[in-house]
Write a structure and sequence with these properties.
about 625 residues; 7-stranded antiparallel beta sheet; Glutamine Phosphoribosylpyrophosphate, subunit 1, domain 1; 19 helices; alpha/beta; about 20% strand; Rossmann fold; binds 5-amino-5-deoxy-1-O-phosphono-D-mannitol
Length: about 625
């Protein structure tokens, strides 16, 4: 969940590291730090707080080295203190390390090292790692200098239980970084006479778009002239250089106040990108190049299992609704973390799907591995190309939504739903959906970007509503069928960025408990789309009204909502059932965004959260 940036080149490392850290801050923001190597010594700056605080400190210290490593921290072991901030230095002063992940056996390592005379300045698991590197370096003294640094890191990693993405500097080997990964992402950017190492492409795309995605169990040794990759068991790896499609502008804020706002407004483009080139020639079905399954394979599948976390889990619930509704194939949805441990009985002809924007969420990765271990094929719907989940899956569908930097997921969510809707069509057309129904469905999906543009036009009105309601401490979100997951999503969005308590329920469930919360101080957000359940939703609104609850109703255009019943009505365009959850997401995203902004919250970096959750 932390961010890592490393640099080897001819420029001043600190400026490049700080720029990279700023772009990575959404990964963790408890503290930040950097170490540059200069004249066989480390220059270190680290501090609790945001990268801007670190930048001020670094400016005072005038760091001049051209090789360095840096880190933004999301605390796991040890509180949020300057001492616990990374980098950590071995007690002999020879090594500096930054680390993302958790060293599970660090207590034993620490005890062993204290016994050998090593000292500790922090409460972190990471410090045990850097001291163990120093210990192995001493033991490797007979080795030539060129391989001693690399070998001591490799030897250390053999003893590690847990997960890591690390970058290490050594005062004896100026201009070099040794980095390795297991369970935490690391990418090497290959620039013009320089190398940038990062845990996320966002940190390096301003310098290069040529990257090597390191795999678990690989170690890279970077020197001023070249780099080499080997595995933990000493096998040479021929690096594959990929080209990143994202540009630096994609990761910039532009005219917006927050990334979340920018990403909400980017949704029409993200939806267009998710659909591009993915409809069949006769425009009656969908095409997915990366599934690696033939139509005959699909005929054998009679069940789908979806796993994800957070917002992506809500997208799975929408997928369940759409696939069961249109393709008539049963779907199971599980939280990744639950699936992994509860050993649920599984049907044999099941195809697995995991959904993850980042492609790095550890619980989802573990669910994928568990399903594969049991012999199931796993497909991944991911946004980040080259991410661990995307690479470990048997096939999948990339979202192409562009970088999502706000911690609250918005454009990734609607693009996941659109892909689920296209997949439902694909399966339905292999079964009972007729050609003409398929054509209609495709036409409806193609309208999604324009319908979302139209829904976005309500932003000024939603901003006003948000101002009026921002001081309430509890909210209820209610929806039915495909909009029940949207009720959950609306509640999650509000909680995570505004810290207001909110709950999502299927509207009819309200009577079985949550109605007890209703009072003048707990408003309810209702989804009231046109269709067979419209009158039922109106009755639920009436029941709330009778108990003096305030109601904000999200209704589709043309709905005859009883005048005066709702306190606020937000209209969204009328649309096909498969597109409805996408369009309905917009008002709840905007409502929570404007409420959080009104309350002065740090919208893109809400407290205690990080963008991608790479620890259990
Ligand atoms: O990267 P992933 O899609 O796997 O992330 C899953 C969740 O951590 C994520 O959706 C989280 O719930 C967001 N902060 C919600 O806005």
């Amino acid at each position: 969940m932390c961010g890592i940036v490393g640099y080897v080149g001819k420029q001043k490392a600190s400026a490049i590291l700080l720029e990279g850290l700023k772009r990575l801050e959404y990964r963790g923001y408890d503290s930040a730090g950097l170490a540059v190597e200069h004249d066989h010594k480390f220059e270190i700056a680290k501090k609790v707080g945001r990268v801007e605080i670190l930048a001020k400190l670094a400016a005072q210290q005038r760091l001049s080295g051209t090789t360095g490593i840096s880190h933004t921290r999301w605390a796991t072991h040890g509180g949020v203190t300057d001492a616990n901030a990374h980098p950590h230095v071995s007690s002999d002063g020879r090594f500096a390390i930054v680390h993302n992940g958790v060293i599970e056996n660090y207590v034993g390592m620490r005890k062993f090292l204290i016994g050998k005379g090593y000292t500790f300045a922090s409460e972190t698991d990471t410090e045990a790692l850097v001291n163990l590197i120093a210990y192995h370096y001493q033991k490797e003294s007979a080795r030539p200098d060129t391989s001693r640094f690399l070998e001591s890191v490799r030897k250390t990693l053999h003893h590690v239980e847990g997960t890591y993405g690390i970058a290490v500097l050594c005062t004896d080997q100026p201009g070099e970084i040794v980095a390795a990964r297991k369970g935490s992402p690391l990418i090497l950017g290959v620039g013009d006479g320089e190398y940038i190492l990062a845990s996320d492409v966002a940190a390096l795309i301003s310098r290069t778009q040529n990257v090597v995605y390191l795999k678990d169990g690989e170690i890279v040794h970077i020197t001023p002239k070249n780099f080499s990759i080997t595995t933990l068991d000493l096998t040479d790896v021929s690096p594959v250089i990929d080209r990143v499609a994202w540009t630096v502008e994609d990761a910039d804020l532009g005219r917006f106040a927050h990334f979340m706002e920018k990403e909400i407004f980017e949704q029409p483009a993200a939806l267009e990108n998710a659909m591009r080139g993915r409809f069949s020639e006769d425009q009656s079905s969908a095409n997915f190049g990366g599934l690696n399954l033939t139509p005959a394979d699909f005929r054998q599948i009679d069940r789908f299992q979806f796993c994800a976390c957070g917002t992506a889990w809500h997208a799975c619930l929408v997928a369940e609704h759409l696939i069961e509704r249109f393709a008539r194939v049963p779907v199971e949805v599980d939280y990744s973390s639950e699936f992994r441990y509860r050993n649920a009985p599984l049907y044999s002809n099941t195809l697995f799907f995991v959904i993850s924007q980042s492609g790095e969420t550890i619980d989802t990765l573990a669910a994928l591995r568990e399903a594969r271990r049991k012999g199931y094929k796993v497909m991944a719907i991911c946004n980040v190309v080259g991410s661990t989940i995307a690479r470990e899956a048997d096939g999948g569908i990339y979202q192409h939504a562009g970088p999502e930097i706000g911690v609250a997921s918005t454009k990734a969510f609607t693009s996941q739903i659109l892909i689920a809707a296209m997949f439902a069509l694909y399966v339905a057309r292999m079964r009972d959906m007729s050609f003409s129904d398929g054509v209609q469905y495709v036409q409806a999906l193609k309208q999604a970007p324009d319908l979302v543009r139209k829904a976005l036009e309500q932003a000024p009105r939603i901003k006003e509503i948000a101002k009026r309601y921002a001081r309430h401490r509890d909210f209820l979100f209610l929806g039915r069928l495909s909009l029940f997951p949207l009720a959950l999503e609306g509640a999650l969005k509000l909680k995570e960025i505004s810290y207001i308590h909110a709950e999502g329920y299927p509207a009819a469930e309200m009577k079985h408990g949550p109605i007890a919360l209703i009072s003048e101080t707990c408003p309810t957000v209702f989804f009231a789309p046109k269709g067979e359940i419209f009158n039922k939703v109106v009755s639920s609104v009436q029941q709330i009204k009778a108990r003096k609850g305030k109601t904000i109703v999200i209704a589709t255009e043309g709905c005859e909502f009883p005048p005066g019943l709702a306190d606020e009505i937000i209209t969204i365009p009328d649309c096909h059932e498969a597109v409805l959850p996408i369009v309905a997401a917009v008002p709840v995203q905007l409502l929570s965004y404007y409420i959080a902004a009104e309350l002065g919250r740090d919208v893109d970096k809400p407290r205690n959260l990080a963008k991608s959750v790479t620890v259990e």
